[in-house]
TrEMBL record:
PROSITE patterns: RIESKE. It comes from the Bacteria. This is Rieske (2Fe-2S) protein. Residues 10-95 form the Rieske domain. Keywords: 2Fe-2S, Iron, Iron-sulfur, Metal-binding. Signal peptide: none annotated. It comes from Curvibacter cyanobacteriorum.
Length: 132
């Protein structure tokens, strides 16, 4: 996956830093809170905006803690909504049928993971920033 014209890329980590079934939050632009998280599921890295579609709050109850206790779903700390790890679709909770917003990622030939901004998601987050 290569960035489109005008896309910006923020370095996040090396792909080996996120093991299968793990999640890591990132604050690529220094906003003071994680604005995205990356999940390794079925061997693939997936990027998601760190915002619940129900209330706009960050997803994790503590840093890097975006999954439910069983590790089967992404969970919103604010109200317990559960999201499918493949699609981001809410499968249980008050935002049933809504989805998390994907964040495009790029992994270079050396395994460095970058968040891409070609969809404007990070810029949109600034407008909806939740103070902590």
């Amino acid at each position: 996956m290569s960035p489109q014209a005008g896309a910006r890329a923020w370095p996040l980590c090396h792909e080996s830093a996120i093991a299968e079934g793990e999640v890591r939050g990132f604050d690529p632009e220094g906003e003071g809170q994680d604005t995205l998280f990356v999940l390794r599921h079925r061997g693939q890295l997936q990027g998601w905006v760190n915002r619940c579609p129900h209330q706009g709050v960050p997803m994790a109850w503590r840093r890097h803690a975006h999954l439910n206790a069983a590790g089967t779903h992404v969970q919103c700390h604010a109200h317990g909504a559960l999201f499918d790890k493949d699609s981001g679709l809410c499968v249980q909770g008050p935002c049933l049928g809504q989805s998390l917003q994907r964040r495009p990622l790029r992994v270079d030939a050396h395994g460095a993971v970058f968040a891409l901004s070609d969809d404007g998601a990070l810029e949109q987050l600034k407008e909806h920033k939740v103070e902590t």
